[in-house]
Amino acid sequence: MPALEQELVKNLKERLVKHLESTGGYESIDFVDAGGSAAIFKVQRNDGLRAVKVFNPNLFFGAPAAASKRRLDVQRRLIDHKCPSLIQTYFADESQGTAIIEMEFNDWPQLSKQLGKVPDDAIGRLMGQLVDAVKYLEGMNIVHRDIKPENIHISTDFQELKLLDLGVAREFDNSDENDAAITDAGVGRPFLATAQYSSPEYLFRLDEPTDKLWKGLNFYQVGAVLHDLIKKEALFQYEILLENRWLVARAVLTKQPSFSDTDAKRLSAEKALALRCLTKDLDTRLSLVGWDEFQFNKIDDPLTTLKTKLSKGLGHLGEVSKSTSTARLAYERQEYCTRIFERVRTELIAACGTELPVTMITDYASNPANIAFTVSPEKSILVRIDCDVSWKSGVYEKSALMEAGAMFQSNSSAARHPETPMKACLEMGIGAAEDETVTAIANKVAELVGLALSRIEATGGDASTLQGTSV
Fold first, then answer.
1. What residue numbers bound the domain in which 139 lies?
2. Binning pLDDT at 50, 70 and 90, where does residue 110 land?
3. 48 and 153 in one domain?
4. Residue 251: partners with Cβ closer than 8 Å, 6 or more residues away
5. What is the pLDDT of residues 196-207, one digit of tens each?
6. What's the pLDDT tens digit per position in 369-381?
7. If we measure between CA atoms, which residue out of 174, 166, 124 comes closest to residue 148?
8. Of 8, 105, 215, 463, which residue is the least packed, with the fewest Cβ within 10 Å?
9. Residue 132, number of CB atoms within 10 A of its CB
C-alpha cells in the first residue's frame, strides 16, 4: 500500500497540533515516517517523549470505519499494560476528526536491520521476551497479526526487545470482524499482514478466523523471527529481492525454509523449533509446537527431556521436512481416505448386518483413489459400488471430488468393471466436516445398494441376467 501523500501528512500534523494543544500541550513535533494508513511523529510532551500515530481520516468514515474503530478499541485496551517487551500505549482514541494513538517512543533499531549482528547467545533471551509479549496479548484475547523483524526494536547490547505496531491487531473471537485477510484500508493488497511473514492458511484464506487460526499464525510468525535470527537473513529473502509478489506467495505456500550453515550442531534445538513453527499445515503445526519449547535456557535432566520429546510422538522428527513434499501430501491424503472410508464401512456393516455382508476393497495410493464396496445378495450376482476420490492441485490440494457408480457383476470376479458409469456426488476435504462427509458417502452407497436389491427383486429370481449392467 503506497505511503500517504505529503499534503495529507501535512494535514495530519495540523490535526495533531490541535489535539496536543487541547490535551496538555507539547514542546516539539518531528515527522518520523508514513505508511499507507497513518503518519508517525516524534513528540516531546511535558511528561516525556512520545511516538504519536495519526491515522488517515478516511479510515474512520464509510465502509472501513467499523473495522478501524474495532482495532482502535483493541489498542485502547492496552493502555498502561504490564508487559515490558510490548510497546506501551498512553492514549488511543478519536480526536480532531481522525484517530490518534500516543505510544512510548523507542529509538532502538529495527531487528530487521540488525539480524547479522545479533550474537547466537542472545537469541534465547530475545525470543523469550518476544514470546512473553505474544502470550500477554493472547491472555488479553488479542492477536497481533503482523509479527516480523520490522515491527521489533532491539537494544544496542542485544539484551532487550520491544514488539511494536499493533495497528492491525484484533480480538481472537470478534465474530463481527471479517477482515482476516484484507488491508487496514480495505483496499490494496489481498492480505493484512506482510505476505512474507504470513502463514499459508492466513495468506490464502484457507481457514475461517478462529482461535485455531490465530494461534497457528502466532506460532508461524514467531517461528519466522527465530528463523531470521538463526540464519541472519530474512525469511524468503531471495523471493523478496526479486520483488515479485507472486513468487513470494508461492514460497509461503510451497517452499520449506532450511538452514544452510555447515555446523549442524549450531543452535540445533532452535533450528528444529523454527522449522516446526514454519510447518505449512495448520493442524500439524499446532500439534508440533508449544510456547514452553521457547525456554531455551531452561536445563532439564536428560530423562525429563527425553520424556517430553516422546510425549509428542516420534512422527514430528521428519514431519517438517516432508510437510510440503509430494510424499507428505500423499500420506495425508491416504490417512484421510482411510479414516473416512473405515467409518463408512462401519456404518454399512451396522446397517446390513449378517444378512448382507459388506466387503471393502481399497486403493488409496492412486489418484483418483478407489474404494469399492461389494455385496452379494445372491450366489449368482455381485454388486460392486465404486467410489473414486480425485484430488485437486495447487491451493486446493487437500480437497477432492468424489464420484460413485455401481455395476452388477459375476460373483466369481470382484474386479472393477471397465464400463462402470461414475457420477459426481460430493466434494470432500482434509479437516473439513468429516462427520457430514462420512454420512453423505454412507447414504450414497446405501442408496445404490437399495437400488440394486430392487432390481434383483424385479428379475423374478434370475438375477444373472443383470450381469454387466449398471445399477
1. 110-322
2. very high
3. no
4. 236, 239
5. 999 988 887 766
6. 999 998 888 777 8
7. 166
8. 8
9. 18
